[in-house]
Design a protein that fits this description.
With about 190 residues, the protein is mainly β. The chain has no helices and 14 strands. The strands form four sheets. It has a five-stranded antiparallel beta sheet with strand order 3-2-5-6-7, with no helix packed on it. Strands 11-10-13-14 form a four-stranded antiparallel beta sheet, with no helix packed on it.
């Protein structure tokens, strides 16, 4: 088996875009290492530095001339199956991850919608809630039994009453039985 993973993403169009930076981790909540020394100009990158058959966690940022970096996409890749799984262009439930995960939403910051992806290694009850910066629940996106697989949900930036929420930082929490992961995201207008 080749020790490489081909990473692709959906590019952004902006006059100050310099390129993209690719980051990798062996663990979802671990530290990420930047893989490229200079911004990548295209919408793909070959990671040939992988050393075994494992799941790797990646995210891609768009780098701008002013030094800003914005998250473009996050995903995982499973070398055992040779497939990139988890975030963009997937069919829900077709790939079963080896471990529970909650990916960083994309785009982040977002306006008006963002996609949240997660993986379930087994059938279970899933609850996905959004909270504002003060810890108040904004909306429950999912509260249901789901089959094992990689899933995604799109949040339109509206609360439980269908009203558009204010710009700012939000937290999203995924709970499944004894597992719980929280991540943060930003809505800009």
């Amino acid at each position: 088996m080749e020790n490489r993973i081909i990473i692709t993403w959906h590019g952004v169009s902006h006059p100050n875009l310099v390129g993209y930076n690719i980051y990798r981790s062996r663990w979802e909540s671990g530290s990420y290492t930047k893989l490229n020394s200079a911004p990548v100009s295209g919408e793909s990158y070959i990671d040939s530095t992988t050393i075994d058959t494992s799941i790797y966690w990646y995210y891609v940022t768009a780098a701008y001339a002013d030094g800003a970096n914005w998250n473009v996409e996050s995903f995982i890749s499973d070398k055992d199956s040779g497939k990139r799984r988890g975030i963009v262009g997937i069919d829900n439930g077709t790939a079963v991850p080896q471990e529970f995960f909650l990916a960083q939403n994309y785009p982040n910051p977002f306006n008006p919608t963002t996609t949240i992806s997660y993986g379930l290694p087994q059938d279970c009850h899933v609850k996905l809630d959004i909270f504002n910066i003060m810890g108040q629940k904004t909306i429950t996106l999912i509260d249901a039994n789901q089959s094992a697989g990689v899933k995604k949900v799109i949040w339109d930036g509206k609360d439980q009453n269908g009203k558009q929420v204010a710009s700012g930082m939000y937290f999203y929490r995924l709970k499944t039985g004894e597992k719980e992961i929280v991540r943060k995201m930003s809505l800009i207008k």
